Structures are given as structure tokens and as C-alpha cells.
Amino acid sequence: MEISIRKALLLWIPILIVPLSALAQVDSLATPEAKGLYRKLFRLSRDFENGKILYGHQNGFHEGRGWRLQSNSDWRGALPESDLHKAFGKDPAVVGYDFAEIGNWNEELIMNQMRAVHQKGGVVTMSWHIPNFDETGTDSDAWNTSGETAKKIVSDPHFKALFRQRLDRLVAYLGRLKDVPIVFRPWHEHNYFWFWWGNTHCTPEEYKKIWRFTANYLKSKGVHNLLYAYSPNDIEKDYFERYPGDSYVDILGVDAYFKSMPENLYFFGVSPLDEWKGDVVTLLNWAEEHGKIPAITEFGNEGIVYSKFWTDYFAWPMERDGLRQFARRIGVPSPRIKPAYSLLWRNDRDSPKHFYSPFPGAPENENFKELLAKKVLGFLGDL
Question: Which alpha helices (DSSP H) does 269-336 contain, by range?
Fold first, then answer.
């Protein structure tokens, strides 16, 4: 089925001459390690013909099917076998963590893992499902959208002070990880409604102010080991509506999930695969235009129920000839860069269906073998 008219119009974007300022890492005081990570991901994304795409997995080394490490007492001085390693002898090159899940019971464990991933040449990413909070400073969770907190952070000094307290917790943690470069992905999926910073809970300008305040505050407190990733949910015409600006973003990302057909109709229209192909082409052309690193910052199909999910959906950003042919078919510029990495969401210890990466006996493992045979994925230790 042909791609939608909406998507085809969206894809028609000229490749402009990129200002030199857009090609620079946004933190001018970045640590040597952060500069090294930036160069590695940028070069990887520009090696369109031969470069691999790094395989990523959220919580890959402290949670999986039937197991979870809880605290530093579980640490044995080496990374445990990931679910992917148990199934295929490979470990994710990109490992995702979330600051909201780090507490005093596991902070040392996560620090040890982050350092180990970095020392093995891997990439650490960190999102933040920052809890909503009220005027008393009581936290709830990121999905509690009451209270107009995002608006109040911008306009109310009391709420801004409470917000600084939460940022200070992050500063304290990152202050102990200055030797580890981290792709930091705050305020994600903001172009929908499910988080308290979403598009129905603050204006575009309010969102931009929160993003810029976050980055400026962290840098003012001496945090210089971060790359900043911007990650709306799906590629829509509003992708840049809340964009804080090239001087605040290193990585242009997208979060994309493939669910049941009714949900896919809402997010992707009648042809999910064609819409996804259009999304990828759009993201790559935008990243080149803005001089940014493109990445698939969250991805997956819960329970891996799609037939040939790995070779048809996950592999699409890696199909060089396919990208060229698809761009020609819909009449847009052919991408000249590719995503640096693609991060799958986590495998839950207990849930019978909440998993996204292979494990022994997982659905579509045979299809994953077909993907491995293409030799387009980068795993831990490959770089």
C-alpha cells in the first residue's frame, strides 16, 4: 500500500547547507569521554555504506526473562549474561537505564554497570521518567498528568525551586560518573499526552523553556559528560514544534512501537510498515539537514508477535538499497546517513508478554538469526 499523502508531503524536505554551529557538540565544556562518544556516534551515522548500527536494549544487564539484579550485592565484578547473550552469544552495545528507577538500593549496581559498559566500548543511555510532584514536594509518577506542573515550573518560583531539587538529585548521581559519557534523553514522547510534560499539558514554548532550563542547569552545576537526545513519539508534522533548538540537542531520535492493529491505525495509519519506512527516511534527512546524530531511541513490538519483525521492521533503517528505492518511489531525497543505534525496550522478569529483545525460546528467534546473517548489527566489544 502506498504511503499516506500526509507522510509524503512531510518527507519533502530539502537538504540544506548546514551551518557550522549545527555540527558541533552542544556542550562546549564536554569531558574528553563525552567528546569521544559524540565523535564515535557521529562518524558511525555518516558511514552509510559500511557502518553498522549498534544494537541497544533497555535494562539489558540487570533485568531479563525470569531474572533481575536488585542491588550492588548482586554485582560480581563483571556484567552478567544478557538475555541476548543467552540466546545468541551477543551482548547489546547500547544499554539503557532510567534515572527514575535508580534509588539507594541499586545506585551502586547501576554505576558499576555503566562503567563496565563504557570500558568495553559500549554506549550508556539514560532516560528520565521524572515523577510528577505537587506543591508540597510529594512525588507521584510520570503518568500522573494532574496539577499543570509543567506550566508551573515555568511560571511559579515555588515549583521551579521544587524542580531544582529534583535536578540536584540527578546532579549528585552524575557527579560520581564523570568518567562515563551518557546519552541523556529527558522529556521524551512529549508530542503525545501520557506524560505530565506532554503536548496537552503545556505549550510548545513552555516545553522548550523546561528543556533549556534542564540543560543549562546541569551544565551550570558542572555536569559535562552528557550528550542530549530529543525523542518525540513517531514522526509527525509536529516533530519540531517543541524542539529546543540545535544548540541544545546532539541526537535526533524517535520512539516507535508496533502494537495491535487498532493501535497501529491510530499511530501509523493503514500500512504500519510503509509509514515506518517513511518515518526513517524523514528522520535521516532531518538529522543530516541539522547536522545531528540520528538514532532510534526506543523501539519494539511487545511480545514480538509480528511475523518477520526483525528483518522487516527492526532492520529497515539498515537497508541501504531499500532506503534509496523507497525515497525514489515517493519522490524525496535519498538518505546519505543512517541511525547510529536502535534501542529496544526492556524484557520484564515476570510478565508473559512484556519483552522486546530475544531470549532463549523467544518468538521469532529464527527470524533474528536471518538478521544476524546480514552482519549489519554492532554488539558490545565490536567498536
Answer: 272-290, 309, 320-330
